[in-house]
Amino acid sequence: MSDLTFDLIGSATKILVVVNGLMATVAGMTWVERRLSGVMQFRWGPNRVGWFGLLQPIADGIKFAWKEDVTPAEAYKPLHTLAPALAMIPALCAFAVVPFGPPIELFGRAIDLVIVDLDGGILFALAASSLGVYGIVCAGWSSRSKYALIGGLRSSAQMVSYELALALSLIGVLLVSGTLRPTEIVERQAGWFWNWNVFGGWQLLGFLIFVVAGYAETNRLPFDMPEAESELVAGYHTEYSSMKFSMFFMAEYVNMITASGLAVTLFLGGYQLGVPLPLDGWPLALLQVGAFAAKVGLFLVLFVWVRWTLPRFRYDQLMNLGWKRLFPLALANLMLTAGLVAFDVIG
Amino acid sequence: MQTLAFFVLTVLAVGSAAVVVGPWVKNQVLCALALAFNLVSLAGFFFLLDAQFIAFLQVIVYAGAIMVLILFVLMLLNVQDERRLAAARPFQRWLGPAAAVAFALIVVAAVRSGGGALRYPQPSAGYGTVRALGLELFTRFFYPFEAISLLLVVAMIGAVLLAKRRL
């Protein structure tokens, strides 16, 4: 088998596994979200379909598929149909650069457990996430509904603003690591957990800014202004039903998973265990993939926890927080990290 | 593989550019989206030329930020009602195609003068990476780089001044 065929088959397999893994996680998360919110609000949540309600996501999928797909008569049809895909594609693309495991040996060849190992991988993730706004804006505009339009406009302003703080909070990590390649950033955090960038790189502030900005980028509570149901019915996806609606729903969850994956990769050691174990080869690789999944899982639970704990911000509060608090803080973090790196304290 | 990617990208880029300026699509929002698509496919060309960093910046800055703001304005203004106001003058209708033909002639002349095939200087390995570009910017092109940053600061102050005057 030639190198090219091997690479093609390898890439196709990785894409297949990752996309299906993401979709399965999305389905699982819809269940986790509702069960956890039930626990937090002293009620049951879905517990009728299957054991502990575990088959609920499948029931939901069937329900979505059977629902009538309504397009408003006034809607601009081409964009109204395209918008869910525009939301979904960047969300899936961004995960391509997140390394979910160490390089492994298979059939005598080394395989990286990341879909593409790009030199500017972090930039690729930023680029993909900056395109995510198009789906929401197009949905808002093409629906020809006031609620949807306001939701779309809010989201574009919000995502453009918080992208700045998000990108600036990353630069600290990039300074400490001296590279933009995600696999190298993870490699540099090997060994004990105090080598992770959030501790060893003095990036706690950057980490917090990243998480807050990440919540705004994924349009999750307390920053879910684009769909704020008490003001805008359902915001940008008010006029969507059936599978098109569910695609927006899935895109939001995939965005959450990608943001979690990036946070873990950049700040929390990626697939590193955090404890040096006397293992190598397959057992270690499996453990590390498991560690990555566990860390991402913890982040996803945190997303749910925050959503059902904090109330929604007002729109001007959101903009104030983004521009007057997070942005200067991220700049300060950047200057501090640059100084520490320049004087060889870290990095 | 690279040739195939080149032709696919060419079709996408030229097609979306045609949608932006051509007479077939009247809807401005769709035109703006086509322009965004065009910018992303141009990023693909940069990628083919091993200029990764430029490709990412192209997407982040142009497609991800500037085009979003343009879309924002188009949606808020609802340009449909104002299209009649901006009817082109007769000479403007000829100016565009004339400029396009002139540009095409220049391109053809440039390609022909190269003996049918353009010769590119062979770049050193990894010249398009962030590291290589950063080193160049902060050594060889240090003064131009700082001049541009000064210019941007001036532009920013100007924007704030102009906006604040009316608040």
Give descriptors for this structure.
heterodimer, A: 347 residues, two-stranded antiparallel sheet, 13 helices, 2 strands, B: 167 residues, mainly alpha, Four Helix Bundle (Hemerythrin (Met), subunit A), 6 helices
Structural class of chain B: mainly alpha
CATH class of the largest domain in chain B: Mainly Alpha
Lateral arrangement of strands in the main beta sheet of chain A: 1-2
Total strands of chain B: the figure is 0
Q: Measured on Cα atoms, how large is the radius of gyration of chain B?
A: 20 Å
List the helices and strands and how they pair.
The complex is a heterodimer of chains A (347) and B (167).
Chain A: H1 3-40, H2 56-66, H3 77-94, E1 104-106, E2 109-111, H4 121-131, H5 133-142, H6 146-177, H7 182-187, H8 197-200, H9 204-217, H10 229-232, H11 242-267, H12 281-307, H13 315-342
Antiparallel strand pairs in A: 1-2
Helix pairs in contact in A: 1-11, 1-12, 2-11, 3-4, 3-5, 3-11, 5-6, 6-9, 6-13, 9-11, 9-13, 11-12
Chain B: H1 2-21, H2 28-48, H3 52-77, H4 90-113, H5 130-138, H6 142-165
Helix pairs in contact in B: 1-2, 2-3
Give an overview in words.
Helices cover 66% and strands 2% of the residues of chain A. Chain A has 347 residues and is mainly α. Chain A has one domain. Chain A is globular and about 60 Å long. Chain B folds into two domains: 1-84, Up-down Bundle (Four Helix Bundle (Hemerythrin (Met), subunit A)), CATH 1.20.120.1200; 129-167. Chain B has helices spanning 2-21, 28-48, 52-77, 90-113, 130-138, 142-165. Classes of the chains: A mainly alpha (347), B mainly alpha (167). The A-B interface holds A 76, 78-79, 118-120, 123-124, 126-128, 130-131, 133-134, 137-138, 140-141, 149, 152-153, 156-157, 159-160, 163, 180 and B 27, 29-30, 33, 36, 40, 43, 52-53, 56-57, 59-60, 63-65, 68-69, 71-72, 75-76, 126, 129-130.
